[in-house]
Amino acid sequence: xxxxxxxxxxxxxxxxxxxxxxxxxxxxxxxxxxxxxxxxxxxxxxxxxxxxxxxxxxxxxxxxxxxxxxxxxxxxxxxxxxxxxxxxxxxxxxxxxxxxxxxxxxxxxxxxxxxxxxxxxxx
Length: 123
Description:
- By secondary structure, the protein is an alpha/beta fold.
- It has helices spanning about 30-40, 65-80, 90-100, 110-120; strands at about 5-10, 15-25, 50-60, 80-85, 105-110.
- Helices cover about 40% and strands about 30% of the residues.
- It has a five-stranded mixed beta sheet, with helices on both faces.
- The N and C termini lie far apart (about 50 Å).
């Protein structure tokens, strides 16, 4: 049974996190676009410079889903934002490598690693 894509957004120090779940396919376009809008224009007083796409609860990504991710990357780049990803299964991490998507989006094993890299040690 297919599970619809759902997205939850929240602000963490240094970034907005979009937690995705279910299936990232053609039906996810509105969900992903809305989540991105919420992430970058949300309640935060400071402008968000980095968006983290958390795939830990994603069951399936198809080629249309990859295209949606690319469109989010293109939009973020045009707006001067960085997008990183975390929580990809080994299979989807390999897909990101094969499609060269990983050349354009930094991948982290999980949200904790992504956030700690983004916030970094205090200088």
